[in-house]
Design a protein that fits this description.
mainly alpha, about 425 residues
Length: about 425
């Protein structure tokens, strides 16, 4: 333990100073020697640390999703170079470099939180052994030793002997009951956090070894917490239980508002988004517009949930635009259809030409030229009728009428001319 304490001594003093500052605030409310004052000081320390780690948590989410996207390519590399481990490692590193991903990014929050965890452990262990640590002086040390959380001293452990627990003004039964309950809650919160990640926020269309590893961790981590938890002081259990609850709530927020593409959480989110857009006629904020923009940009590469979302908008008379906006009615220009092709409206249909009748098709060219559209009985040449004896002048006019009528007739064999009488 001395080796660990020396490694993290650079952070021990700041951690003890933060605890003392919070204790001075809560001590004025609940009393300086109460478990509420010291317990809430530890909880506040956790919240402060986790707020500072939010940027790393965002990086962890991006790294995890990037690794999920790369799983099919990684599997191909493993199968291609299964007999050459060195070449396999080289190709993996090349893939990480080309895509800008880092497998260790998903562990950043845990790694960044570890120094604070060991520093707090060292501070509480010093309280249990009666040693001053950091800025905790003799007066604060005595106050911390008097503090009890539900009857268990702040520095007591599940494995402590009865004599040691009695020295802290408590009973072994109280310590073991409180620590056992906290260990169970700590393990359950860890299990639920991992389970909701696997059941709601994982792309179910891709089956990779990464998913199998995550499922294994879902059962391994709670067991690790249960085994090592019996050696943690009550104050450290408060710290770890608080950080697990924070992680669980933080992950629930991310799953609810920014789910992984292709997951069940995305299907539920897009269903809620469809209802909101069809009711209000627009997206609510920049985040929703970014999600709609990403879906539109995918085109034909959309998954089933995203295609269902686009179809739901189209059926309701809306269309998602390339900038993430949603437009209703005839003004929905350049909307994306189900297969990713642009349309001219939310419910645009292909316009079919009007079917023409036979006579219209035959006389179409004549209309364009300004000629008579058809030949009726009155327009037929007189020589086509049973002609009566006519004068010479009438014959000339008949011939001119016949020539005009012939110009409007369709091509093809013509009826034989009947002989006219002079």
């Amino acid at each position: 333990m001395d080796t660990i304490a020396s490694l993290f001594s650079f952070i021990t003093t700041p951690v003890s100073w933060v605890i003392v500052q919070f204790h001075s605030v809560y001590g004025a409310i609940f009393g300086p020697d109460t478990g509420w004052a010291w317990g809430l000081s530890i909880v506040s320390l956790v919240i402060l640390i986790r707020i500072c780690l939010i940027p790393l948590f965002v990086k962890q989410i991006k790294a995890t999703r990037a690794m999920q996207t790369l799983q099919p390519e990684m599997k191909k590399i493993q199968e291609r170079y299964k007999n050459d481990r060195q070449r396999q490692s080289e190709e993996m590193m090349k893939l990480y470099k080309e895509t800008g991903t880092n497998p260790l990014s998903s562990c950043l929050p845990i790694l960044a939180q570890s120094p604070f965890f060991f520093a707090l452990y060292h501070v509480l262990n010093g309280i249990a052994s009666g040693d001053t640590v950091g800025v905790i002086n003799d007066r604060l040390l005595e106050s911390a030793q008097k503090a009890h959380i539900f009857g268990a001293p702040l520095a007591a452990k599940f494995t402590d002997s009865a004599d040691k627990v009695e020295a802290l003004n408590s009973s072994l039964t109280d310590v073991r009951v409180v620590t056992a309950i906290m260990i169970v809650l700590m393990s359950l919160s860890q299990f639920y956090t991992q389970r909701q990640l696997m059941t709601k926020n994982v792309d179910t269309t891709v089956k990779t070894p990464f998913m199998q590893q995550q499922k294994m961790l879902m059962y391994v981590f709670p067991v690790i917490f249960a085994v090592f938890g019996i050696n943690f002081p009550v104050g450290v259990l408060v710290y770890w239980l608080t950080t697990n609850v924070w992680t669980m709530g933080q992950q629930m927020y991310v799953i609810h508002n920014n789910p992984t593409p292709g997951s069940k959480a995305q299907a539920a989110y897009l269903e809620r988004l469809t209802k909101h857009v069809t009711h209000h006629g627009k997206t609510r904020n920049r985040r929703e517009r970014a999600i709609v923009k990403a879906i539109v940009a995918k085109g034909r590469d959309r998954n089933d949930h995203e295609r269902k979302f686009i179809n739901g908008l189209n059926k309701a008379g809306f269309a998602a635009q390339a900038d993430g906006m949603v437009i209703k009615g005839e003004s929905a220009v350049a909307a994306q259809s189900e297969d990713g092709t642009p349309t001219t409206g939310a419910a645009a249909k292909r316009q079919q030409p009007k079917r023409q009748s036979k006579s219209q098709r035959q006389t179409g060219p004549a209309k364009a030229a300004g000629e008579p559209t058809s030949l009726t009985k009155s327009d037929e040449p007189e020589d086509a009728k049973p002609a009566a004896p006519a004068k010479k002048d009438n014959a000339k006019s008949t011939g001119s009428t016949r020539s005009k009528a012939q110009s409007g007739q369709r091509k093809g064999p013509q009826r034989p001319k009947s002989p006219s009488k002079k």
